[in-house]
Design a protein that fits this description.
seven-stranded parallel β-sheet, NAD(P)-bd_dom_sf, alpha/beta
Length: 268
């Protein structure tokens, strides 16, 4: 079973911080060419500088992927630099609370646009390129891999963040639908659902609530909060040919939390 992604080209969204950054760095370390993209231009420039501006494995592309033109330019920049794209990781997330009994339609629309629609559109665009570049290669096992990142909110409701929960659930259904549609083209689509992971949002929440860390640890069977790198390892596996017969699946990386404790805003 080969987990190698040496020489592959990946696009990672939300790559300026947190989980998206951990995923992008993980893929670089494993030998892939990686396009880091995020709307946070300053943050993106800072993290890419850490790899060296002249590193041929790394390309930064600042921009709001919710905009269709930005998506198209992102793909064009990737092809200009590396001539192909083999892996897409939709790690961009936008989290905001909403009143479960009086949800502002604007917030709900924004949650769906940021957390599901943008990733779906980018996946469709990238998939078309994957199909094109695999033409005339009937013997290849994998023409491409797409991995979507979500949270336990997708399957277990968080009333205080109803809009976000709905968007995460929609994203996971889009993962399954695309997996079925793209399977004949040898493109796999999977998801990674997380909790008890040190995301950017959790770091911010822990600063506000000193008791939260122990609450999470107590509610996690494996008894700790995992690093973002541990989730990145799961993404790497799903992106590699080691997972070549896995598609349409949502892998939960939560230390067993979903088995033992009600999901709360701490898990996002």
């Amino acid at each position: 079973m080969s987990l190698s992604i040496q020489g592959k080209t990946a696009i990672v969204t939300g790559a300026a911080r947190g989980i998206g950054l951990a995923v992008a760095q993980n893929l670089v370390e494993r030998g892939a060419n990686v396009v880091f993209t995020d709307a946070d231009e300053e943050g993106l420039d800072r993290v890419v500088s850490d790899h060296g501006k002249d590193n041929p494995q790394v390309l930064d592309f600042p921009g709001d992927i919710c905009e269709k033109l930005v998506m198209a330019n992102l793909l064009s920049a990737t092809l200009d630099a590396y001539d192909r794209v083999d892996i897409l990781v939709n790690a961009h997330r936008f989290v905001k609370g909403s009143d479960p009994l009086d949800t502002d339609p604007g917030i709900l629309e924004e949650m769906l646009r940021q957390n599901m629609i943008a990733g779906l559109r980018l996946s469709q665009m990238v998939a078309k390129r994957m199909i094109k570049q695999s033409e005339g290669q009937p013997d290849i096992v994998q023409a491409g891999s797409i991995v979507n990142v979500s949270t336990l909110a997708a399957s277990r409701p968080v009333p205080a963040m109803l809009g976000y929960s709905i968007a995460c659930a929609a994203q996971e259904q889009a993962t399954r639908g695309l997996a079925l549609a793209l399977a004949p083209h040898r493109i796999r689509v999977n998801g990674v659902r997380f909790s008890s992971i040190m995301s950017h949002e959790l770091k911010c929440a822990l600063k506000e609530d000193v008791d939260m860390r122990q609450q999470i640890i107590d509610g996690t069977p494996l008894g700790r909060i995992a690093s973002a790198d541990e989730l990145a390892d799961a993404v790497h596996y799903l992106a590699s040919e080691g997972a070549r017969f896995i598609t349409g699946q949502i892998v939960t990386v939560d230390g067993g939390r979903s088995l033992a404790d009600p999901v709360t805003a701490q898990d996002l």
